[in-house]
Amino acid sequence: MGKGASVQTHPGTVYQFGPFGVNAASGELLKNGIRVKLQEQPFRLLVVLLETPGEVVSREELRKRIWPEDTFVDFDGSLRVAVRKLREALDDDAEKPQYIETIPKRGYRFLTPVAGPIKDADRAAAPIDATVSPAAGQTGVARHRIGRWILSGVILPGLIVIVVSLLFPRNREVLTEKDTVVLADFTNSTGDPVFDETLRQGLAVQLEQSPFLSLISDERTQEELRLMGQPVNARITPQIAQEICVRTGSAVALGGSISSLGSQYVLGLNAKDCHTGGILINEQVQVARKEEVLNALTQMAGKFRTNAGEPLATVEKHNTPLAEATTPSLDALKAYSEGWKMASTQGEAAAVPFFKRAVEIDPKFAIAYAVLGVMYGSTGESDLAAEYTSKAYELRDRANDSERFLITAYYDGRTTGNQERALQTCEAWARAYPREFNPYLFLSGFIYPVMAEYEKGAAAGEKAIELSPDISVGYVNRSFNLVALDRLTDAESTLRLASERGPDVPFALLTKYDVAFLKADKAGMDRAGVLAQGNSGAEDWLADHQAAALAYAGHLQQARTMSEHAVALAQQGSHKERAALFETRVALREAFFGNKQAAKKSAEKALALAKEREVVYGAALALALSGNAVGAEAMANDLEKRYPEDTSVRFSYVPVLRARLALDRGEPAKAIEQLQIASHYELGSPRSAINGFFGAMYPVYVRGEAYLAAHRGAEAAAEFEKILDHRGVVLGDPIGALAHLQLGRAYAISGEEAKAGSAYQDFFTLWKEADPGIPILKQARAEYAKL
């Protein structure tokens, strides 16, 4: 406590009052489990007052206890400062004190009843005081975040229990549904590296089968390691786990060990109270063979679940044996564990080979296939995502309940594209696992946006953040929905919160760029571009967005150069599907602007790179706009046949293609009829808009064109006004710029020349520095001259 300090306490002395806990030995003040900063002298003052609550402690006693005779300070001034700082920490009012009362000319008195002092010996057999540990983050989309692994409640042949010391009282709730657990790495003294990382991963996924328990996320762990001056990939020793536990306000630090005993193995599991360091559970199990280690780990985790207070009903309901649910192979589990470690420290690209290795070792490893599907989906590799997700879906019976929810929801969201069914799965998933944030990520990321439910999407993103505030995806998804609602200030605030928790992930940078674009904030756009440079996950995407912004203002030649750069970057990173999406954007841009040959050429390039459904749709529309009706018709038929359940195909892609083809045949009434089904989700962001940033509100735009062709100017104007009213949905798509021109055409047909002239002028202002040879611009100038 510093020179001359005379506050003497037992090493494990703990006091509790109101929402506060005080560990006298470690110098920690906690409020609802969260550490409160308090300097040394105010903390000493608090400990002295807590020793005799309700009694006046004289100023002279405080001087002797806190500032002994060999300490030279201004005692009166120092005491006043210490009391003031202590009151600030406790949020106490000197005029109406709840905790510390000033007794004029005498000293101070602690007013609130105090539980304590409690010492280690007293607490060794005591339950965890769950009232001091609020929820922190739930494990999320890295490492434990996708998979929920398994538990077994049956003693299996070959397991020999050596020592079982359970210091949790049985059948008594010792953790609450808001408490969190920190996992330490296992101490491996066998010399066999197959157990490195593997046992911690196995324990994590077994515990995560529980709807009751929640583990501190890897992201939160890495952040705490940084704050502690440790490398983010440091081993989580028992000592480090204990410190992380205290820093995060968690309830329990859980760790284990494995050692060899001749040809046999001994596993240990222990749990410590985060605030006292007292042992809460200590168990050892001996097994005869390496192949039985995972079964032993299952048994030990099962005992922890039961004795931590999880209701027996949920333990029995969510209790799939490990070998049946995931993999019986230690080697496959080791590869899977290493994959998550790489994902959390070096990114998805570095992790993919390890997950592939896991499924090579065990071709029935369902959740490993699912993880590969999610990772490829998040990087724009749609076909690979569908391939691995389909395999996971085939093997879904080899997964536990939570994993089956994840696999089924992602299978419908990614492979079949049936967002209505994915919605039902996610709603059931959230009910069954109220502490799981993944269903809210799915809802906010690709279900509600497709269905034009942006308010619900923003709320789901907020719920994901609440459940796991250390996972950046929740912030990105919420901000995406807020942008679609044109709530740009709220989106910026959400992105700032994400930045405060760690470096920006690629799609956070893209959203920052989009917000700056919508605000015409050139400096903000440039900042996002600089931040993306050298970022392999963001640089090519950002270049694609920069190209879109250039084209939006009519700088078509510059846009072409920037798109070439984006495509080259994607191909250098072996992201062929991503490159194809960028080339598809080029094809559509050229087609909308009237450069038919350039559009056909880019559509062919895109299809040569990849033939996933969004590329096929975009290329087909570019061909339809460029006069290749036969090719577009064939591709529309192919989409309808291959993806009969896909919400975006049914309600956006096929109706738009068929309507556009009807317009080419001079059948505007037929086009309007084809688009009736699209009205369900016409303001939504179909998969193409989420995966490739094109296609949002295309049904509205083509319907407006059909009304123009039918000389129904007022109805056409209403369609184009929808687009101008939803800039956050359309973003940098060419139709956002062309809607001004089309609105002018609609007013002209209606005979409203003043409004028509104003709309044309809006377009010309936007394109005031546009390349002069763009066909659509030439047409617009000729039309305006006739007005």
Structure characterization notes:
- The chain has 787 residues and is an alpha+beta fold.
- The chain has 4 domains: 14-121, Winged helix-like DNA-binding domain superfamily/Winged helix DNA-binding domain (Arc Repressor Mutant, subunit A, Orthogonal Bundle), CATH 1.10.10.10; 124-323, ABC-type transport auxiliary lipoprotein component (Rossmann fold, 3-Layer(aba) Sandwich); 350-499, Serine Threonine Protein Phosphatase 5, Tetratricopeptide repeat (Alpha Horseshoe), CATH 1.25.40.10; 575-786, Alpha Horseshoe (Serine Threonine Protein Phosphatase 5, Tetratricopeptide repeat), CATH 1.25.40.
- 57% of the residues lie in helices and 9% in strands.
- The protein is built from 37 helices and 14 strands.
- The strands form 3 sheets. Strands 9, 10, 11, 12, 13 and 14 form a 6-stranded mixed beta sheet that branches. A 5-stranded antiparallel beta sheet has the order 4-3-2-1-8. It has a 3-stranded antiparallel beta sheet with strand order 5-7-6.
- Helix 14 (382-394) packs across helix 15, helix 23 packs antiparallel against helix 24 (556-572) and helix 30 runs antiparallel to helix 32.
- The longest helix has 18 residues, at 647-664.
- The radius of gyration is 31 Å and the shape is globular.
- The chain starts with 13 loop residues before the first strand and ends with a helix.
- Mean pLDDT is 86; it is low at 1-12 and 119-173.
